[in-house]
Amino acid sequence: MKENFLKCVIVVATILALGSKSTAQVVEGGAINRTSAAVPFLSITPDSRSGGMGDVGVATSADANAISHNAAKLAFAEAPTAIGLSYSPWLKGLGIDGVFLGYLSGYHRIDDRQTIAASFRYFTYGDIQFADGNGNALQVYKPSEFSFDAAYIRKLSETFSMSMAARYIHSDLGSGNYSGIEISAGNAFAADLGMLYAKESQLFGTPTNFSAGLNISNIGPKISYGNSKSFLPTTLKLGGTADFVFDENNSLAWSLDFNKLLVPENGNDETSVSGGIFDSFSSLKLGVGTGLEYWYAKLIAVRGGFYTDASSSDASQYVTTGLGVKYSSFAFDFSYLIPTAAHDPLEKTVRFSLAYNFNSSSKLKKQTNNN
Predict the structure, then answer these.
(1) Rg of the chain in Å (alpha carbons)
(2) Global pTM?
(3) pLDDT tens digits, 103-145
(4) Coiled coil: which residue ranges (predicted)?
């Protein structure tokens, strides 16, 4: 089994390289070429709302999944507490079963200035069959990865907030020895830094909520797989949103995000994390996402978006659509991805999200007590 472990790595890397906005490590001629980031499951948009809007999220209005995009948004969240659950079968366009991303997240407002948040992300590759040099089946292995986040958000003024998040990452792609290269499960710690500016204003006589955000995610040392080390997918994101409130029943938000993978294209074991971030700017290739979100009576949402990523190996492009429904304290969201290229591995990607906002009952109790 040990001599066949790298076959598992090759399959996993191929899956991720095809299906994630962040490229994965590859194997060439029996050697690991560390020209890109490991654990790219951290770069997959986990929730349906952003998934339906071209993967934007740095400056959209806060919800239960905000920690995955920019935790600083939670300083301006309407509900004091919320929890969300998302599920996405992954790479259905390749006909692969058992590969999916699960995401659980939530937050709680401590007071008018402080909020805490946490999330758990789990990605499984399904069953991978090991084989010997003659193609005989040996053993079925189930690689998986997960991360756990905790964030603290501080509202510094009526229009500005900052956040810091800590993340534990575990990547279990298997274990073994290949040509003297010892491979084991990888563990790493990382941090996020987020900022948000939000202000109510008017544009063309229409009340408009403007927001601009910045988030740097997965800042940390390389993740080690035994003798092999790889960069984390450190990413810089900048974005803005203009939310036009036409009346009490109709609103339309437009968002635009830019993201830059802060990983060198030709990194190696001698390249430091700080040096890799600096070297990454030798290429100005960016990922760009834009999306619209229309709400009617704060009950039904229709979403659409577009994403293009010149920084990835396949320069992926896709259109996204989505729907949202709110009932009482519950919110349900659905999104669907439509690649612009034929036979794209992201074809048929769907996401489902369910959230609960702990606000209605508490507000009712306060009103009753005041009366």
Answers:
(1) 21
(2) 0.86
(3) 999 999 999 999 999 999 999 988 776 665 666 666 677 889 9
(4) none
